[in-house]
Amino acid sequence: MLNRLLLFVMAACLGTLFLKMELPIPYLLGGIFAAVACKIAGSPVTWPKNWRELGLLVAGYGIGRNFTADTWEKMTHQTFGVLEATLIAVAVAVLIAWWTARHTSANLISCVMGIMPGGLTQMMLMSEDDPRADANVVVVMQTLRLVGVIVAVPFLVIHGLGAQVMQNNAIVQTTDGTHWLILVPLSFLGAFVATKLKVPTPRLLGPILATAAGSYFWGSLQPVPGLLMMLAQVSIGLYMGVMLDPKKLSATKELMPYIFSGIVLMIGVSVIVAWSLSERYGFSLVTAFLAMAPGGIAEMCLAGMSMGEDVSIILTYQLVRLLFLNICVPLGITMYFKNKSLD
User: Fold this and answer.
1) How confident is the model at residue 296 (pLDDT cuts 50, 70, 90)?
2) Measured on CA atoms in the order 294, 297, 302, 308, is the torsion positive or negative?
3) Is this structure's pTM higher than 0.85?
4) What is the per-residue pLDDT across 47-94, written as a single tens digit (0 to 9) for each?
5) Mean pLDDT of all residues in 211-240
Protein backbone atom coordinates (compact mmCIF):
# COMPACT_ATOMS: atom_id res chain seq x y z
CA MET A 1 0.00 0.00 0.00
CA LEU A 2 2.88 2.38 0.79
CA ASN A 3 4.38 1.78 -2.65
CA ARG A 4 1.06 2.62 -4.29
CA LEU A 5 0.73 5.78 -2.21
CA LEU A 6 4.23 6.91 -3.24
CA LEU A 7 3.42 6.03 -6.85
CA PHE A 8 0.24 8.11 -6.67
CA VAL A 9 2.10 11.09 -5.16
CA MET A 10 4.73 10.84 -7.89
CA ALA A 11 2.03 10.74 -10.56
CA ALA A 12 0.20 13.72 -9.04
CA CYS A 13 3.43 15.75 -8.92
CA LEU A 14 4.19 14.94 -12.55
CA GLY A 15 0.61 15.82 -13.46
CA THR A 16 0.93 19.18 -11.75
CA LEU A 17 4.14 19.80 -13.68
CA PHE A 18 2.41 18.90 -16.95
CA LEU A 19 -0.45 21.22 -16.01
CA LYS A 20 2.04 24.07 -15.56
CA MET A 21 3.43 23.16 -18.99
CA GLU A 22 -0.14 23.61 -20.32
CA LEU A 23 -0.49 20.03 -21.56
CA PRO A 24 -3.96 18.50 -21.97
CA ILE A 25 -4.94 15.56 -19.70
CA PRO A 26 -1.92 16.37 -17.48
CA TYR A 27 -2.75 14.02 -14.62
CA LEU A 28 -3.46 11.09 -16.90
CA LEU A 29 -0.08 11.65 -18.56
CA GLY A 30 1.46 11.99 -15.11
CA GLY A 31 0.10 8.57 -14.16
CA ILE A 32 1.45 6.95 -17.32
CA PHE A 33 4.92 8.47 -17.01
CA ALA A 34 5.18 7.72 -13.27
CA ALA A 35 4.32 4.04 -13.74
CA VAL A 36 6.58 3.64 -16.79
CA ALA A 37 9.50 5.30 -14.99
CA CYS A 38 9.14 2.94 -12.03
CA LYS A 39 8.93 -0.13 -14.27
CA ILE A 40 12.01 0.91 -16.23
CA ALA A 41 13.84 1.41 -12.93
CA GLY A 42 12.94 -2.16 -11.99
CA SER A 43 10.40 -1.36 -9.28
CA PRO A 44 7.57 -3.96 -9.13
CA VAL A 45 4.68 -1.46 -9.21
CA THR A 46 1.03 -2.47 -9.54
CA TRP A 47 -2.27 -0.61 -9.67
CA PRO A 48 -5.60 -2.31 -8.85
CA LYS A 49 -8.00 -2.67 -11.75
CA ASN A 50 -10.90 -1.74 -9.45
CA TRP A 51 -9.29 1.65 -8.77
CA ARG A 52 -8.93 2.24 -12.50
CA GLU A 53 -12.59 1.34 -13.00
CA LEU A 54 -13.68 3.83 -10.34
CA GLY A 55 -11.75 6.44 -12.29
CA LEU A 56 -13.57 5.37 -15.46
CA LEU A 57 -16.94 5.85 -13.73
CA VAL A 58 -16.04 9.46 -12.92
CA ALA A 59 -14.57 10.09 -16.39
CA GLY A 60 -17.63 8.51 -18.00
CA TYR A 61 -19.94 10.93 -16.17
CA GLY A 62 -17.70 13.88 -17.05
CA ILE A 63 -17.80 12.93 -20.72
CA GLY A 64 -21.46 11.94 -20.96
CA ARG A 65 -22.78 15.16 -19.41
CA ASN A 66 -21.66 17.04 -22.54
CA PHE A 67 -24.20 15.18 -24.68
CA THR A 68 -27.41 17.21 -24.97
CA ALA A 69 -30.56 17.29 -27.08
CA ASP A 70 -28.89 19.94 -29.25
CA THR A 71 -25.93 17.62 -29.78
CA TRP A 72 -28.20 14.84 -31.01
CA GLU A 73 -29.91 17.19 -33.45
CA LYS A 74 -26.56 18.35 -34.85
CA MET A 75 -25.16 14.85 -35.14
CA THR A 76 -28.11 13.55 -37.17
CA HIS A 77 -26.84 15.82 -39.96
CA GLN A 78 -23.32 14.35 -39.76
CA THR A 79 -24.06 10.66 -40.21
CA PHE A 80 -21.97 10.42 -43.36
CA GLY A 81 -19.01 12.16 -41.73
CA VAL A 82 -19.11 9.83 -38.71
CA LEU A 83 -19.21 6.69 -40.86
CA GLU A 84 -16.56 8.06 -43.21
CA ALA A 85 -14.17 8.80 -40.33
CA THR A 86 -14.75 5.32 -38.85
CA LEU A 87 -14.16 3.44 -42.11
CA ILE A 88 -11.02 5.43 -42.94
CA ALA A 89 -9.57 4.70 -39.49
CA VAL A 90 -10.22 0.96 -39.92
CA ALA A 91 -8.80 0.94 -43.47
CA VAL A 92 -5.57 2.63 -42.37
CA ALA A 93 -5.22 0.18 -39.45
CA VAL A 94 -5.64 -2.81 -41.80
CA LEU A 95 -3.02 -1.38 -44.17
CA ILE A 96 -0.54 -0.93 -41.30
CA ALA A 97 -1.25 -4.46 -40.07
CA TRP A 98 -0.66 -5.94 -43.53
CA TRP A 99 2.62 -4.05 -43.94
CA THR A 100 3.83 -5.06 -40.47
CA ALA A 101 2.98 -8.75 -41.01
CA ARG A 102 4.73 -8.71 -44.38
CA HIS A 103 8.03 -7.41 -42.95
CA THR A 104 8.16 -9.05 -39.49
CA SER A 105 7.71 -12.51 -38.01
CA ALA A 106 4.29 -11.55 -36.56
CA ASN A 107 1.32 -13.04 -38.41
CA LEU A 108 -1.47 -11.00 -39.96
CA ILE A 109 -4.21 -11.79 -37.44
CA SER A 110 -1.97 -10.67 -34.55
CA CYS A 111 -1.09 -7.44 -36.34
CA VAL A 112 -4.73 -6.67 -37.18
CA MET A 113 -5.77 -7.20 -33.57
CA GLY A 114 -2.76 -5.24 -32.35
CA ILE A 115 -3.18 -2.04 -34.35
CA MET A 116 -6.96 -1.49 -34.39
CA PRO A 117 -7.62 1.94 -32.78
CA GLY A 118 -10.04 2.02 -29.88
CA GLY A 119 -10.28 -1.74 -29.47
CA LEU A 120 -7.69 -2.43 -26.80
CA THR A 121 -9.84 -4.48 -24.43
CA GLN A 122 -11.75 -6.38 -27.11
CA MET A 123 -8.65 -7.18 -29.17
CA MET A 124 -6.73 -8.42 -26.13
CA LEU A 125 -9.60 -10.72 -25.17
CA MET A 126 -9.85 -12.04 -28.73
CA SER A 127 -6.10 -12.71 -28.88
CA GLU A 128 -6.33 -14.79 -25.70
CA ASP A 129 -9.16 -16.89 -27.13
CA ASP A 130 -7.70 -17.43 -30.63
CA PRO A 131 -4.69 -19.81 -30.81
CA ARG A 132 -3.62 -18.29 -34.14
CA ALA A 133 -2.95 -14.90 -32.54
CA ASP A 134 0.15 -14.05 -30.52
CA ALA A 135 -1.29 -12.42 -27.38
CA ASN A 136 2.10 -10.88 -26.53
CA VAL A 137 2.24 -9.11 -29.92
CA VAL A 138 -1.34 -7.85 -29.53
CA VAL A 139 -0.76 -6.53 -26.00
CA VAL A 140 2.45 -4.71 -26.96
CA MET A 141 1.03 -3.21 -30.16
CA GLN A 142 -2.23 -2.08 -28.56
CA THR A 143 -0.55 -0.64 -25.48
CA LEU A 144 2.12 1.23 -27.45
CA ARG A 145 -0.48 2.50 -29.92
CA LEU A 146 -2.70 3.84 -27.17
CA VAL A 147 0.09 5.31 -25.03
CA GLY A 148 1.93 6.66 -28.09
CA VAL A 149 -1.17 8.46 -29.36
CA ILE A 150 -2.09 9.79 -25.92
CA VAL A 151 1.41 11.22 -25.49
CA ALA A 152 1.77 12.52 -29.07
CA VAL A 153 -1.67 14.06 -29.56
CA PRO A 154 -1.42 16.65 -26.73
CA PHE A 155 1.90 17.92 -28.08
CA LEU A 156 0.50 18.10 -31.60
CA VAL A 157 -2.69 19.96 -30.72
CA ILE A 158 -0.77 22.47 -28.59
CA HIS A 159 2.29 23.06 -30.76
CA GLY A 160 0.91 22.13 -34.18
CA LEU A 161 -2.75 23.13 -34.15
CA GLY A 162 -2.49 26.08 -31.76
CA ALA A 163 -4.83 24.80 -29.06
CA GLN A 164 -4.60 26.14 -25.50
CA VAL A 165 -5.25 24.41 -22.21
CA MET A 166 -7.78 26.15 -19.98
CA GLN A 167 -5.85 26.34 -16.72
CA ASN A 168 -8.95 26.87 -14.60
CA ASN A 169 -11.15 24.47 -16.54
CA ALA A 170 -10.72 21.66 -14.03
CA ILE A 171 -11.74 23.71 -10.99
CA VAL A 172 -14.48 25.98 -12.33
CA GLN A 173 -17.82 24.94 -10.83
CA THR A 174 -21.40 25.94 -11.49
CA THR A 175 -24.53 25.62 -9.38
CA ASP A 176 -26.71 25.35 -12.48
CA GLY A 177 -28.31 22.03 -13.35
CA THR A 178 -28.63 18.74 -11.50
CA HIS A 179 -26.03 18.24 -8.73
CA TRP A 180 -22.93 16.30 -9.77
CA LEU A 181 -23.58 13.61 -7.13
CA ILE A 182 -26.12 12.22 -9.59
CA LEU A 183 -23.02 10.57 -11.10
CA VAL A 184 -23.18 7.91 -8.36
CA PRO A 185 -26.50 6.30 -9.37
CA LEU A 186 -26.05 7.11 -13.07
CA SER A 187 -22.53 5.69 -13.36
CA PHE A 188 -23.12 2.55 -11.33
CA LEU A 189 -26.46 1.83 -13.01
CA GLY A 190 -24.96 2.43 -16.44
CA ALA A 191 -21.98 0.18 -15.69
CA PHE A 192 -24.26 -2.56 -14.32
CA VAL A 193 -26.59 -2.54 -17.33
CA ALA A 194 -23.68 -2.37 -19.81
CA THR A 195 -22.01 -5.33 -18.11
CA LYS A 196 -25.22 -7.40 -18.28
CA LEU A 197 -25.62 -6.50 -21.97
CA LYS A 198 -21.96 -7.40 -22.59
CA VAL A 199 -21.22 -3.94 -23.98
CA PRO A 200 -17.47 -3.44 -24.64
CA THR A 201 -15.58 -1.57 -21.86
CA PRO A 202 -18.79 -1.38 -19.73
CA ARG A 203 -17.22 0.61 -16.86
CA LEU A 204 -16.65 3.48 -19.31
CA LEU A 205 -19.39 3.19 -21.93
CA GLY A 206 -22.11 2.43 -19.36
CA PRO A 207 -21.61 5.69 -17.40
CA ILE A 208 -21.15 7.65 -20.64
CA LEU A 209 -24.43 6.40 -22.14
CA ALA A 210 -26.39 6.65 -18.88
CA THR A 211 -25.15 10.20 -18.22
CA ALA A 212 -25.75 11.21 -21.84
CA ALA A 213 -29.33 9.98 -21.50
CA GLY A 214 -29.72 11.91 -18.24
CA SER A 215 -28.32 15.05 -19.82
CA TYR A 216 -30.60 14.65 -22.84
CA PHE A 217 -33.81 14.25 -20.83
CA TRP A 218 -33.09 16.35 -17.71
CA GLY A 219 -30.95 19.14 -19.12
CA SER A 220 -27.73 20.48 -17.61
CA LEU A 221 -25.70 18.32 -15.21
CA GLN A 222 -23.04 19.89 -13.00
CA PRO A 223 -19.37 18.99 -13.65
CA VAL A 224 -17.53 16.97 -11.01
CA PRO A 225 -15.10 18.83 -8.71
CA GLY A 226 -11.63 19.30 -10.16
CA LEU A 227 -9.99 17.25 -7.40
CA LEU A 228 -12.20 14.24 -8.14
CA MET A 229 -11.47 14.43 -11.87
CA MET A 230 -7.76 14.69 -11.08
CA LEU A 231 -7.93 11.53 -8.95
CA ALA A 232 -9.76 9.75 -11.77
CA GLN A 233 -7.18 10.78 -14.38
CA VAL A 234 -4.25 9.70 -12.20
CA SER A 235 -5.84 6.31 -11.51
CA ILE A 236 -6.56 5.66 -15.20
CA GLY A 237 -3.06 6.78 -16.19
CA LEU A 238 -1.31 4.64 -13.58
CA TYR A 239 -3.15 1.52 -14.70
CA MET A 240 -2.21 2.18 -18.32
CA GLY A 241 1.42 2.77 -17.43
CA VAL A 242 1.59 -0.42 -15.37
CA MET A 243 0.41 -2.38 -18.42
CA LEU A 244 3.70 -1.62 -20.20
CA ASP A 245 5.99 -4.56 -19.50
CA PRO A 246 9.69 -3.97 -20.42
CA LYS A 247 10.19 -7.73 -20.91
CA LYS A 248 7.37 -7.93 -23.45
CA LEU A 249 8.68 -4.84 -25.21
CA SER A 250 12.11 -6.43 -25.49
CA ALA A 251 10.64 -9.67 -26.87
CA THR A 252 8.88 -7.80 -29.68
CA LYS A 253 11.53 -5.19 -30.48
CA GLU A 254 11.46 -6.01 -34.20
CA LEU A 255 7.92 -4.59 -34.28
CA MET A 256 8.86 -1.21 -32.83
CA PRO A 257 9.70 0.63 -36.09
CA TYR A 258 6.44 -0.55 -37.65
CA ILE A 259 4.35 0.29 -34.59
CA PHE A 260 5.68 3.82 -34.31
CA SER A 261 5.62 4.47 -38.06
CA GLY A 262 2.05 3.19 -38.02
CA ILE A 263 1.16 5.61 -35.23
CA VAL A 264 2.64 8.47 -37.27
CA LEU A 265 0.63 7.40 -40.32
CA MET A 266 -2.57 7.14 -38.28
CA ILE A 267 -2.08 10.59 -36.80
CA GLY A 268 -1.21 12.07 -40.21
CA VAL A 269 -4.36 10.63 -41.81
CA SER A 270 -6.37 11.83 -38.79
CA VAL A 271 -5.20 15.41 -39.37
CA ILE A 272 -6.20 15.26 -43.05
CA VAL A 273 -9.63 13.80 -42.32
CA ALA A 274 -10.07 16.25 -39.41
CA TRP A 275 -9.43 19.18 -41.73
CA SER A 276 -12.07 17.85 -44.13
CA LEU A 277 -14.61 17.37 -41.32
CA SER A 278 -13.86 20.82 -39.91
CA GLU A 279 -14.38 22.48 -43.28
CA ARG A 280 -17.55 20.51 -43.94
CA TYR A 281 -19.32 20.86 -40.60
CA GLY A 282 -17.89 24.05 -39.12
CA PHE A 283 -16.41 22.86 -35.81
CA SER A 284 -12.80 23.63 -34.89
CA LEU A 285 -9.85 21.71 -36.31
CA VAL A 286 -8.78 20.68 -32.79
CA THR A 287 -12.25 19.26 -32.06
CA ALA A 288 -12.24 17.42 -35.37
CA PHE A 289 -8.75 16.04 -34.77
CA LEU A 290 -9.57 14.76 -31.28
CA ALA A 291 -12.74 13.20 -32.71
CA MET A 292 -10.67 11.41 -35.37
CA ALA A 293 -7.47 10.66 -33.38
CA PRO A 294 -6.76 6.93 -32.88
CA GLY A 295 -6.64 7.13 -29.09
CA GLY A 296 -9.04 6.01 -26.39
CA ILE A 297 -12.47 7.57 -26.09
CA ALA A 298 -11.89 8.64 -22.48
CA GLU A 299 -8.47 10.14 -23.17
CA MET A 300 -9.51 12.12 -26.27
CA CYS A 301 -12.68 13.43 -24.58
CA LEU A 302 -10.75 14.41 -21.46
CA ALA A 303 -8.23 16.22 -23.65
CA GLY A 304 -11.09 18.08 -25.31
CA MET A 305 -12.52 19.02 -21.91
CA SER A 306 -9.18 20.46 -20.78
CA MET A 307 -9.00 22.66 -23.90
CA GLY A 308 -12.61 23.80 -23.97
CA GLU A 309 -13.38 21.97 -27.22
CA ASP A 310 -16.75 20.52 -28.23
CA VAL A 311 -16.67 17.27 -26.26
CA SER A 312 -20.06 16.18 -27.60
CA ILE A 313 -18.64 16.02 -31.14
CA ILE A 314 -15.52 14.18 -29.95
CA LEU A 315 -17.67 11.76 -27.97
CA THR A 316 -19.98 10.96 -30.87
CA TYR A 317 -17.24 10.22 -33.41
CA GLN A 318 -15.13 8.25 -30.93
CA LEU A 319 -18.15 6.33 -29.62
CA VAL A 320 -19.37 5.28 -33.07
CA ARG A 321 -15.88 4.11 -33.99
CA LEU A 322 -15.49 2.26 -30.69
CA LEU A 323 -18.79 0.42 -31.16
CA PHE A 324 -17.93 -0.40 -34.77
CA LEU A 325 -14.50 -1.72 -33.80
CA ASN A 326 -15.85 -3.79 -30.94
CA ILE A 327 -18.86 -5.24 -32.79
CA CYS A 328 -18.20 -5.29 -36.55
CA VAL A 329 -14.40 -5.71 -36.63
CA PRO A 330 -14.33 -8.86 -34.44
CA LEU A 331 -16.98 -10.40 -36.73
CA GLY A 332 -14.92 -9.42 -39.76
CA ILE A 333 -11.74 -10.91 -38.27
CA THR A 334 -13.55 -14.13 -37.39
CA MET A 335 -15.02 -14.49 -40.87
CA TYR A 336 -11.84 -13.62 -42.77
CA PHE A 337 -9.53 -15.86 -40.73
CA LYS A 338 -12.10 -18.65 -40.25
CA ASN A 339 -10.37 -21.11 -42.56
CA LYS A 340 -6.83 -19.78 -42.20
CA SER A 341 -4.13 -22.00 -40.75
CA LEU A 342 -2.10 -21.28 -37.62
CA ASP A 343 0.89 -20.20 -39.73
Assistant:
1) confident
2) positive
3) no
4) 888 888 898 888 888 888 877 777 777 677 778 888 888 889 889 999
5) 85
Return the CATH fold of 2-41+49-165+199-336. Na+/H+ antiporter like fold (1.20.1530)
> How many C-alpha atoms does 170 have within 13 Å on its Cβ side?
23
- Three state DSSP letters for the chain: CHHHHHHHHHHHHHHHHHHHCCCCCHHHHHHHHHHHHHHHCCCCCCCCHHHHHHHHHHHHHHHHCCCCHHHHHHHHHHHHHHHHHHHHHHHHHHHHHHHHHHHCCCCHHHHHHHHCCCCHHHHHHHHHHCCCCCHHHHHHHHHHHHHHHHHHHHHHHHHCCCCCCCCCCCCCCCCCCECHHHHHHHHHHHHHHHHHCCCCCHHHHHHHHHHHHHHHHHCCECCCCHHHHHHHHHHHHHHHHHHCCHHHHHHCHHHHHHHHHHHHHHHHHHHHHHHHHHHHHCCCHHHHHHHHCCCCHHHHHHHHHHCCCCHHHHHHHHHHHHHHHHHHHHHHHHHHCCCCCCC
